[in-house]
Amino acid sequence: SQLTILDSKRKQPSDTVKSVVDSKEKFEEEFVKHVETSLGRSMYNCDDLAAYQAASNTIRDALIIDWANTQQKQTIQDGKRVYYLSLEFLMGRAMDNALINLKCENNTRQSLNELGFNLEDVLNQEPDAALGNGGLGRLAACFVDSLSSKNYSGWGYGLNYQYGIFEQKIIDGYQIEAPDYWLKYSNPWVLDRNEIQIPVDFYGYVYEEHDPNTGKVKKNWNGGERVLAVASDFPIPGYNTDNTNNLRLWNAKPTNEFDFTKFNAGDYQQSVAAQQRAESITSVLYPNDNFESGKELRLKQQYFWVAASLHDIVRRFKKQHKQNWKKFPDQVAIQLNDTHPTLAVVELQRILVDLEGLEWNEAWSIVTSVFAYTNHTVMAEALEKWPVDLVGRLLPRHLEIIYDINFFFLKEVERKFPGDRDLIRRVSIIDESPKSVKMAFLAIVGSHKVNGVAELHSELIKTTIFKDFVKVFGAEKFTNVTNGITPRRWLRQANPKLAALIAEKLNDPEYDYLTNLGKLKQLEQFVDDEDFLKQWHAIKFDNKRKLAALVKELTDIDIDPSVLFDVQVKRIHEYKRQQLNIFAVIYRYLHIKELLSKGVTIEEIKKNYYIPKASIFGGKAAPGYYMAKTIIHLINKVGEVINADKEIGNLLKVVFIPDYNVSKAEIICPGSDLSNHISTAGTEASGTSNMKFALNGGLIIGTVDGANVEITREIGEENIFLFGNLAESVEELRHKHVFEGVNVPETLQVVFNAIEKEVFGPADEFKSLIDSIRYHGDYYLVTDDFELFLDAHKKLEKVYGHDGGDATDRGHLQEWVKKSVWSVANMGFFSSDRCIDEYAENIWNVEPSNQ
Ligand code: Z2T
């Protein structure tokens, strides 16, 4: 067959390079070669950074062989491919992950040792690939890992930002943003494909042309500005398989086409400068999570990426199937990660109608069978709405097509619901004032399936923001795929000792459970095994020590690993309610001080009131989000006061870890006892860090929101600390706040008083936080949930134990540790492998390729 011919032709080089993962000798040979040639250095002058570069080049070579073989196989098999379009891929570090997925960590560790290096130090040289904001971007990264690991033929398409999410510095308690120029040492994990260049046009005008053959009028678009999309390919290795998919990230580059009029007018410098500006399209990731700022450059990024990706997909299809467009939906499934890539719907319709000459209806039925759309939020400020003027100027032909799509869609609605003018107004893709394109509506109309990311969220979108579309299209178009996380990174990589203990207990020396996470269930048989619980706890304690060391390194604050580590790390947002958490910390502090002033001893407080704990926060605020930045400031100022209070000692510490990112999350998640997922009910679509913490044996304090609901169902409600008002009450409570006033409970009033008495510095600084509750309707229901939150803490502290004894002895932690084991045993459902299987079966209609 074609395959064997290809195989025999290329056996030699591939075997040699791939063997670096199996043979230490070969690895060392390649490593030295890279130091001396790729890096132009000598082994005598090779520091950890150079070692990282040489090691990653060595491993990258091996990956590329797998990757090339995979692409060849997939091309020959010619099955349906999945394309995951995401404006964000929050990948984190690649090297450790590659070692794990290729199963060559031990060899590499030993080789590096023999060469005089320590693997951990070398791994720590790698900058995070932080091409995302938070959950949405990290989800995309977990999905490409699962696509490869489960042997799907699935590519990611995104942008190769020169600057990832900013680096957060904390100065005087304030967030300061510094640029993240992550490519300063070049990126060994991408293959720059300078030969793959796709022209992308903007602006210009539409003109009509008479086709003499058909006698019809044809629309054409003449772009006014052209940039090139050049590909950088990230090989994505699967776990325990050779299947290595591609993540293709586009770079914007100038074309060589010069404006000769300017050139002749002596405007050479200006002309070059204008060309250079092309690169700004992919220079920076917009740093907003759950918020759309509506900037022109952002829309340019979206079209640039969508146009390049679609031309690439269409070119690949035509190479195999010419213009047999009927086959297109059998070969291609495109998933829209939120509405950011929605212009792809319009672009494909334009390609099919304007460039390929298909009839509108035929083209539209192809388009809608190819696309599916994932919604990630119900929050109004995050839903994209592009001004019609802007779209028309930047993409004149696309705006016409959007109007046509809307026209045909509304006609269909009118046919189904004659005379329902209000329905037609409500579902129109075009909003009348201000005139704008509602991207979520366009995505729904252009897709065959729409999904939410957790059960509660998927139900909510059907009854709120997309209610009318359920009426129009029927409920079957709307479905749920609960989010998941990859256990390779979030268990095996982040928590190697726990992963090893699990492998031992499951009698699974090859760690096959990492691609079959339901096997964790078998851990249940050990919940009464004393030795096992001891081991389990010792590992958690060790991870807490590592986290304490990280905290010390970054903040110089000492936290005692034997106290309860109470963690909230995620983007800072009012709806995620870090303010609720810090207010409760303040309350605790004030109460402890009051008790001390009344002569109650520290020992008595530990026994009867509060166990020792460290409250650990982390997360970035969008640079323009004043309230979020104020919350960060408050946390830091509260920390300064409490941590310096000699009377309090280790009874309470407050830490803000600067620059929370994926690689820090890999240390933080395994080191937490308790993590906070306390969003106002109905606002957090899913959450995925809840899964990361629970999979690492941490317990959760949370609201009945997002995936917390399903986590509770899986692990049992006795193993999670739920509190707070339910989503169904939120609307009524908000209404009450506005019309009957906000009732600040006494406990919270005490906190506000202290802030206003300037216990934590100038009160002005925090005024907005208090005002939003007192005077602006307490939209996020802090007052309604505050005391319920305090109660939940009382309950969980009882379980953690009040004796304040040495936590290295897990005797008093018996109950807690059992809950931890019980949780992990039941987290199998939250593997991103399960998500990908669900998408494959229910949305994409694809099967894994046989390896
Ligand atoms: C984001 O991270 C999320 C939703 C967004 O809506 C945008 C961004 Cl950048 C437009 C998050 C959700 O807030 C979170 O609940 C969810 O788990 C995550 O996406 C992945 O679905």
Write the layout of secondary structure elements.
Elements: H1 2-9, H2 11-18, H3 24-36, H4 48-77, E1 81-85, E2 89-92, H5 95-101, H6 105-114, H7 119-123, E3 129-131, H8 135-149, E4 154-159, E5 167-171, E6 174-178, E7 191-202, E8 205-210, E9 217-222, E10 225-237, E11 244-254, H9 260-264, H10 268-276, H11 296-321, H12 328-331, E12 332-337, H13 343-355, H14 360-370, E13 371-374, E14 385-387, H15 388-394, H16 396-416, H17 421-427, E15 430-431, E16 436-438, H18 439-445, E17 449-452, H19 455-463, H20 467-473, E18 478-480, H21 487-493, H22 496-505, H23 530-555, E19 564-569, H24 578-597, H25 602-608, E20 613-618, H26 626-643, E21 652-657, H27 662-668, E22 674-677, H28 689-695, E23 699-703, H29 708-715, E24 721-723, H30 727-740, H31 746-756, H32 767-774, H33 782-800, H34 814-825, H35 832-844
Parallel strand pairs: 1-4, 1-12, 4-11, 12-13, 13-17, 17-18, 19-20, 19-22, 20-21, 22-23, 23-24
Antiparallel strand pairs: 2-3, 5-6, 7-10, 8-9, 10-11, 14-16, 15-16
Helix pairs in contact: 3-4, 3-6, 5-21, 8-35, 11-13, 13-14, 13-16, 15-16, 24-26, 24-31, 24-33
The chain binds ligand Z2T.
Ligand Z2T binds next to helix 8.
Keywords summarizing the entry:
851 residues, alpha/beta, Rossmann fold, 3 domains, 9-stranded mixed β-sheet, 6-stranded parallel β-sheet, 35 helices, binds ligand Z2T
